Amino acid sequence: MTYDSSRLVDPASLPKAEFAFPGPLRDALVAAILDGRKIATTGLTAEYEHEGEPLPEIGERSVVVDSADRPVAVIEVTSVRVVSLGEVDTAHAVDEGEGHTTVAQWRAAHEKFWHGQEMRSALGDATFTVDDTTPVVLERFRVIVDLRTA
Fold it and tell me: How many secondary structure helices (H) and strands (E) does the chain include?
């Protein structure tokens, strides 16, 4: 018999992993996580600083929630790098699972999100913008428990 420690995870004891804001984008990102297309994400260091949150660390687990705030999966961080936005590579862009095949496509979509009203409001900066030097957090993760079937 194989011992699977991932089944012993109590989702209620974990922090939430919220991808984007509730709505169609979050729903698409959560679907990509659940079907295995999305194994990476990018955050702004400015967002972590604004929220007073520490950067993710390898081995940390969190519970992915959908737009209705329902827990759907537990993920574990497998890699974290802080780089400038201009250093994001194609492999990371593709591994975000949003269908981008080039860094340019990935960046255009992310800039639209980061320059949007919701993100600017969340950061408390109505004129927030990014450029090649903006520090970002490149995070890789794996699903350890699909809560829809657990």
Answer: 5, 5
78-113 pLDDT, tens digit per residue, is 999 999 999 999 999 999 999 999 999 999 999 999
pLDDT in tens, 26-59: 999 999 999 999 999 999 999 999 999 999 999 9
Complete edge-to-edge strand list for the sheet that includes strand 135-146: 16-17, 61-65, 71-84, 135-146, 40-44
Q: Which two tokens stand for residue 38?
A: 């999305």
Nearest to 142 by CA among 73, 90, 89: 73
Instruction: Report the distance separating Cα 37 and Cα 91, nearest Å.
Output: 13
**Residues near 66 by Cβ (< 8 Å), separated by ≥ 6?**
26, 27, 30, 72
> CA 105, CA 110: separation in Å to the nearest integer?
9
- Predicted TM-score (pTM) of the model is 0.89
